[in-house]
Amino acid sequence: xxxxxxxxxxxxxxxxxxxxxxxxxxxxxxxxxxxxxxxxxxxxxxxxxxxxxxxxxxxxxxxxxxxxxxxxxxxxxxxx
Amino acid sequence: xxxxxxxxxxxxxxxxxxxxxxxxxxxxxxxxxxxxxxxxxxxxxxxxxxxxxxxxxxxxxxxxxxxxxxxxxxxxxxxxxxxxxxxxxxxxxxxxxxxxxxxxxxxxxxxxxxxxxxxxxxxxxxxxxxxxxxxxxxxxxxxxxxxxxxxxxxxxxxxxxxxxxxxxxxxxxxxxxxxxxxxxxxxxxxxxxxxxxxxxxxxxxxxxxxxxxxxxxxxxxxxxxxxxxxxxxxxxxxxxxxxxxxxxxxxxxxxxxxxxxxxxxxxxxxxxxxxxxxxxxxxxxxxxxxxxxxxxxxxxxxxxxxxxxxxxxxxxxxxxxxxxxxxxxxxxxxxxxxxxxxxxxxxxxxxxxxxxxxxxxxxxxxxxxxxxxxxxxxxxx
Lengths: 80, 381
Hints:
Chain A is an alpha+beta fold. Chain A has 2 helices and 5 strands. Helix content of chain B is 30%, strand content 25%.
């Protein structure tokens, strides 16, 4: 489910999905947005925090924030 | 009053469910209390796993196609039409070819996956695939004409149908070339979108040393961004560029437009309770198979098991009983590891896959299952 938020231009809600689903959903969204766009990924899979960072480093994108929201993580990634 | 159960999609899930319901509710159908309709946009049922073998000249597309009418119980009405939209308030289906909408009491979405290669520029022109009849035949022709060169298998779409198939292809093409004494003339490369060679880490751990041992080069974190057919290159979002002589791609997939149009989910996948398979927020609507966003692989075996669960639930509901059957995520996959060997995995929401040592017997079991699949579709196996 994708919704607009104040902090990020789009949000990919991958809660409930197991790895690598959240990362793949994020990559799919980043494919579609313009350079400079910040996408928020919501994931309750702890591995997402490391997998997203690792992928973003490789792909040359920037993880701008990782927030522990209690029952899930909110990970902001800027497309560079 | 007659209760109408509508099933949209005549693939594995829809066909197994239709036959399952015809058997479970035979008395109710005979008494005129229940009607079952299976909607499909073509006359045939297609068994997609055959296509992998088409690419190697071992099967023909016709081996994977049979008329739905031959497979589905006579008590099920088959309508060849495209369901365009769903009016949830009225409980009606809008069809493309019929003027009047069709009322339903229970609805099951089993619309499967489609390929969407246009999402990657140049892929249609520059890539081959084995995820369709025409694609598999074109790939067979290409493989037969190559004397040598670089074959790149790139997993682009995720999720995609049959998550084991990309590994199967590279293992099979490696073996196929070795059997013909041609392996030295070829380079093989396997690319995958994330940091390991398969989405499931247990499968990835099993597969990686096997790829390495067979000198199949690995490029992980490779998300194809564009294909240049003229230059023979594929470039990733991670700025890696590979030259290829033959690109075999797992194209991006999408679900049916119907699902988004009807508000059942995004990307063509229905938001469901992964245990009951009920569509989130909608009464009397289920989804099974690839269309259901359960997190399990988009595989025929999952669709088959889900169809049995929904069959039980619908039969209970029709009889006014509580529906208690739940889906535990069960999936089974045969994985070819060459032209003559295979392994097998069985897993669910709680238990991860644990591939065993490949054997010739398992390969023959897979081929035997491919033959006996038609009994599965009929609801007999």
